[in-house]
Amino acid sequence: MPKKPLVLVAAILVLVTASCTWGSEEVGTTSTTTPPAPSTSTTAEEATTTSTEVSPGTADVVITNANVITMSDAPRAEALAITDDVITAVGDRASVEALVGDETLVSDLDGATVIPGLVDAHSHFFGQGIGAAIQDDEILSNGITTTAEFHVTPEILETMRGFEQAGELRVRTSLYLIYTDACGNVQEDWWREHPPTREPGEMLRIGGIKVFADGGSCNVPAVSYTYEDGSTGDLYFDVDGMESIISEVEEAGYQVAVHALGDNAVATVLEAMERVIGDSGNPFRHRIDHNGVVSPDMYGRHQESGAMAVLFGAFPTCAFTDANNEYKYRTPDQFASWEWPWRQLLDSNPETVFAWHADYPALPASLGANLAGFVTRVEGDCQPTPEMAAGAITVEEALHLMTMGSAYALDRDEEVGSLEVGKYADLVVLNQDPTAVDPLQLGATEAVMTMVGGNVEFCREGYSDVCQAYVAEPGPEVGSQPGCQPTGENLAIGAPVSASMSLVDRPPQGAVDDDQETGWGSGAGPEQWIEVDLGQEYEVRCLRVLIDQFPAGRTIHRINGGAHPDPGAELGLIDSVTDSGEWLELPGPWNIRYLRITTVESPSWVAWLEVEAWGGPPGP
To answer: Which pTM was predicted?
Structure first.
């Protein structure tokens, strides 16, 4: 019995209930020019080095001896330079290394591959009730430097603005405010109070408005055929209704992003988009997201309509080919080739801008999984059927969708998406060259270092040699500071504690609760302090603090103690190259009641997982 394919995420999407800084500089302006189409013929061996683009002056950072995939008209380079948070040179080693000055940090990558930071045009990283720091790590570890949070409610908007104000966002994030919920219910026009923003380099942006055309995360995708139960899914608006919504949102000055999974929904939105866009060239960059089922008679309709298309990367081959899974709504066998026909869409719409979205957590954000899904559609031991394999695209096309295509979808293609002079230094160092490896090995591709605006924001374990090149003037290594043995009792447990400032979800009490999984986070860079009141004078023989820091780098902490708050007596200075999970120690003894730790230098926001003060009653 043949196995039946699934209509995209009829059940997968149910997971989503909708579910050292180097300054700043304005970069470029918004543009309505379609980004260049990806090359489908240039191999790693055939690619030529770019002609060097150089801005005058010495650089802050030079990355050299690298295999730089630029995603620009000149596809390859050997080196690039960064000044402040902007790329100032891209090209051959000699030209770029000429920008090295006395204070330039030089990183020799020994041939490692560098690509632009990935741009995820649609996901739900922050809408899951999880803190920004945790989600940023999930994003950055997969090489994503720009993302878009979809299904933004007033509550999520408030939370995201709180993250931004606390300096907690490390990934450029565009917000798409909901016009409807996932079940198609039109919301109040609260979104009108939050106009779109287009400030170059901004970490938080109001990107546009999200509209649901059919089911998926609620209800069922709307299709032209019948499911096994005789239904055709849930279409929320007819063409006239969708045209009215797109026109309303455009007249208010916003981009529209429409969720459309089933072919009936895709056809409805394409017709509505064509009516609204007309001959305008789509200056608002209106887009159709998902495009999960597309009938062959619609293959050229995206170009005719003028709309953009945003496509999935990671391909759930195992779910699609498992006849025993629990997914209820399935595409009949005769329509299997209509699902995710990316090859056919790219070939039929050469002037259409296509982009990528991970749509995390419905599908994985993994760089390797998305490349493999685009190119081979092999998932672990699960092999695609011929119909599935026919929809695959090339690795060059996939990389273009995941960088310049998605940057265009977010109206950020003048800022990010390629490695060119004048763009922000958002880039990723990979463990392998995806254009040179066996396609069946694409799933193993991963980011080993991720940089946003010239800052190293993620470093994979085992690759500290790559990341440490960006740490200037290191202090002594951890361990060269005097150590001490914790004797007596930890007097800090449960003690009253205060701090210079704190994140709502990481109050200072988290640093004295004897739980290394919690901690205090200031949400800001130095100087920041935390102060513990031991309740009375004790003899403190050993101070121990557990580091919560990213990235690794030099930190300096001033320790003060005394009988009164904000004690003036300096007990010591800790100056080390530090990383998360390490303990710093300072031996006493001191007779004190108040203990204050002030961080005066750190490459990250100031935070401690635990503060311990070991000792007991003062001696006679």
So the answer is: 0.74
